[in-house]
Amino acid sequence: xxxxxxxxxxxxxxxxxxxxxxxxxxxxxxxxxxxxxxxxxxxxxxxxxxxxxxxxxxxxxxxxxxxxxxxxxxxxxxxxxxxxxxxxxxxxxxxxxxxxxxxxxxxxxxxxxxxxxxxxxxxxxxxxxxxxxxxxxxxx
Length: 140
Ligand code: FES
Hints:
Elements: E1 7-12, H1 16-25, E2 34-39, H2 47-55, E3 60-65, H3 76-93, E4 101-105, H4 111-128
Parallel strand pairs: 1-2, 1-3, 3-4
Helix pairs in contact: 1-4
């Protein structure tokens, strides 16, 4: 039986959540592996949320926010860029593969982009195999 990764996706309410909604309304084919969590802004996603998602059994974490210049809280997504860069460094020191955490921008009109990112992420994490925090993030 093939491994089906669990992906937690934090979606910003104003753009990415609506993009995901558009994909659904338009009946676009999307991998069923993504569990969406709506947040008001990508800048609301604390590093702790990501760590807790992995701890709770996620094999990958996706953060989707508004494109540059479109954040409804002006600089929320710029904060996210800095935060995720630091978090990725920390995860790599813990032996967690870089590809398990991804930050992307999806607008309300980009249903197709939402589908392509989530499908791509699902495939990428499927190739990595299940995440196990018990052995420092390596497969098994
Ligand atoms: S409101 Fe969407 S990233 Fe800030």
